[in-house]
Amino acid sequence: MGIFRAKQKYIARERVKQLISFAEKVFSKDPKLANHYIDLARRVAMKTRVRIPPELKKRFCKHCYVFLQPGVNCRVRTRNDKVVYYCLNCKEYMRFPFLKEKKLRKRKT
Ligand SMILES: [Zn+2]
To answer: pTM of the predicted model, to two decimals?
Structure first.
C-alpha cells in the first residue's frame, strides 16, 4: 500500500468514526438523522474499503443498518462467550465474540 493510499484510508477511518459519533449524539433527538449518519459511514467504509472497527460495529444493525442504542431500540445479552444484540427494528440478532482479553489469557496458559 502506497503512502497516498495509506493516508486516504486513515482519513476514511477517521471520517467513519466521526460519522458514527455524530449518530450517537443526535439519536435521542432525531433517530432518522442518526440512521442517515450510519448510512454515510457505511458508504465511506465501503467506497474506501476501510474496515469498521469492531467496537463501532456494535453501534448499528448489520441487517437493517439503524443506529443501535441498547435499552432503546436493541437488547443486549451475554451468552457463553458471546454478546448478542437483538435489533428491535428488524427483529434480527447479531452475535459478537466476547472481549479479546479472555482469548489472550487462554493463549498464555
Ligand atoms: Zn435491525
So the answer is: 0.84
Angle at 96 between CA 90 and CA 97, to 5 degrees: 165
What fold, for 3-108?
Answer: 1.20.5
pLDDT, position 102: 52
Centre of ligand 1 from the C-alpha of residue 16, in Å: 19
DSSP result, 30-81: -HHHHHHHHHHHHHHHHHHTPPPPHHHHTTB-TTT--B--BTTTEEEEEETT
Q: How far apart are CA 96 and CA 52, in angstroms?
A: 14
Q: Cα of 70 to ligand 1 centre, how many Å?
A: 12
Domain ranges of the chain: 3-108
Ligand 1 (single-atom ion) residues, CB below 5 Å: 61, 63-64, 87, 89-90
Q: How far is the CA of 23 from the centre of ligand 1 (A)?
A: 16
What pLDDT score does 72 carry? Answer: 97
